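Issue 218. Parser rejects a valid record. Input:
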Amino acid sequence: MGTPNYVGIDVAKDSMEVTVHEGKESWAFSNDERGLANLMTKMKRLSPRLIVMEATGGYEVTIAAELHSRGFPVVVVNPRHIRDFARSVGILAKTDILDAKVIARYAATVQPAPRALPTEETKRLGAMMMRRRQIVAMRTAEKNRLQQADPAVKDRIKVHINWLEQELNDVNKELKQMIESNPEWKEKSDIIQSVPGVGPNLAITILSDFPELGRLNRKQTAALSGVAPFNRDSGTMRGKRCIWGGRGVVRTAAYMSAVSAIRFNPLIKPFYKRLIDAGKLRKVAMVACMRKLLCILNAMLKNHTTWDCRVHQLIGPCH
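Output the parser choked on:
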């Protein structure tokens, strides 16, 4: 058997650079239908073991989807991972072809596991959730401006805030309709929202940005959601453990639900109090509650069961 082909693709708005790890050839294709067809022909001849691309603001989506539909093993990775890898092997220069070679080398060295790409319906849900977050951010910014605004522009800011409020209501209604029209999403949403303290924001965030929940173990749940504490030890030094990485939108939504859960959830509320009474910092206790809440949701989705305090009190923190 020949050496397996690990392919790296550097995608730009109008072009893509393609190279094979330790190969002598590289190709440049246009990022359009013709270039995509040429890429498919080339990949069919190569029969790659793994194709890796960076997430580049959406320019990679069509290419990844087409590769996936043709049965090629493709992974879209966080650009930060590629940059960190390049620095680790002493590559500081940056060109399109060099980036493609680094991505191919990353594919061969790290060999990230391929995973199913989101469906069109899931991508639409994610886009709507992203728009919702943008509207909320704009509304918050305008409300902050209103406090210090000159009287000459206050009425205009108020008009914009009212418009944003209406737009937010319309987006919320459309999101609700999308969930109601999909039986699988509807079941998951009902399961998630059966937990005291959890509302539609976390439910939709999980459906759009954390679809793996329900198929993970505790450590994976904590790591992917960004609430896993990582060690910072070196030699005799023992640093404070801190959370890092993961999916920020999931962590933010889980935080808001945890704030509510420590007041109203009969399991999370005493758990939080127990940690505070033991001398834990409030921030540490809150993260522990977020982690416990997500682990409970993971178990509920895995077993297709709604909230039952007697059962879920047996689920400990995600260690």
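Fixed in the parser; the record now loads. The radius of gyration is 23 Å.
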